[in-house]
Protein 1
Amino acid sequence: MSSVTQALSRWLGNKSSAATDETNPSQARLLRHSTGLTEFTRIISAVQGLSVLDLGPTSPANIRYLTELGHKVYNEDVLSEASRPELQVKGEDGTVRFDVETYLKYNLIYQPESLDAIFMWSVPDFLQEALVKPMMERLSAALRPKGIVLGFFHSKASAPAIPHYRYQISDGTRGMLELRSGQPHKLQRVFNNRHIENLFHDFRTCKFFLTQDNLREVLATR
């Protein structure tokens, strides 16, 4: 088992089961149960023809699962796009800042109230501080009334030692996710419950799901 997989197994408190990717035996994967995903799936399974946005890396498994439910899928790898070096610009005083304006000019462009559901995963935990609030404003404006967002948030002060992982839907009805090694994004912060509620301040509800590992699952309804 690789050091990355061992770290993830310790992080999950050995609650998940390890397996091998049949298409790439050298790449280990871990299965994790998600109550938030179960609830998310229950909502989006009630009607066909929804517009669903996945903010993680492109995942054939996620695309297949959502299209089989009869939905239209959009995908934006927010963290990878935000990590582009040209978005780090130097000001007149010599300080380096993240170019939010340029990022938003080319990313997260959706018509108002055009989306029904968003997989946000753990993106806010790893995103540059300057982009967190603008991203949430874009997502909020793009969601239709009663639209939903599923987000995961680290809950331990020691969480910065945990690398970023990709989330793939294994069985949405049972809330099973495959956690795979992702790009080397650095954890930027650990939100407390009040901070999370502030992220969704203009949403009607913000439901927390308790877990036995170091993630808090949140299902927010616009």
Protein 2
Amino acid sequence: MASSDKNRPTSYLHESGDRIKALIDKAGPQQPIRTGVVHPVNAVSLRGVAGAVEANLIAPVLFGPFKKIEAAAQEISFDLSAVDIVDAPHSHAAAAQAVASARAGELDALMKGALHTDEIMAEVVSRDRGIRTERRVSHIYVMDTPAYDKLLFITDAAINISPDLEAKRDIIQNAIDLAQALGVAAPKVAVLSAVETVYPKLQSTIDAAALCKMADRGQITGGVLDGPLAFDNAISAEAAKTKGLNSPVAGAADILVVPDIEAGNMLAKQLDYLAGAVAAGIVLGARIPIILTSRAEGTLPRVAASALAKLYHYARANKPI
């Protein structure tokens, strides 16, 4: 059903989240990945674990206070008899023990439970105790938006506050790697700004132009980049045509690279809460993927994020960062 405004993308009618659900189905057949779940002490976080187990996505190892985990499991009737639990007195200890286990090679992924993002990420990026690589860690939302005809990747909306050019290079490469792991062979990357021309007073336009040249020189690989692009030009072919843009990305972007965390966070949550999107979030750039969802998210986004981690794990098994 076409929108009444020609400058808006074509609207597609489908079940909410059906493309996200297809990713869960796609990830199901392979062996579940051993996943350290950090501080799953409430019904919401543990229900996501239960859903991922039921979908054959993860083999969980729960890190946190045993009695609180047990109480949450009883609340949702989740059987813990076959689940490994590492007793930890509080969320900080749970994060430290889970990351230590990952550093020892005992886990394929981490999952955030009922704790703040900075608690788990502080351990992940610790120079002495963490699981850093040479690449910057970054967050990617994979969004199934009813008004767009394919999955949309938005980065970075949760980790890097105001990334510089070098950080943006890693942010883009992480997103390309994830898109390829999900089956997008050559993802189209739109580097966003407020305008589609290079404007010296607007740093995001300068960064966008530099990133595109970095891709030309092989410093970013696997994707097709263009920018700066305004949001409308990135996702609407009609808007791009009206503005006279000749671009392989405009109107068909797979990945949207935002200037900073504020722009990304607001964009993703607007699509989620106002446009009916279903979102799954993951952090890449560390030794293993990190399933990172908002504490307000329901079960489907948590299970879908587990599917992302599993698909990425198997796609990258022989291609370490």
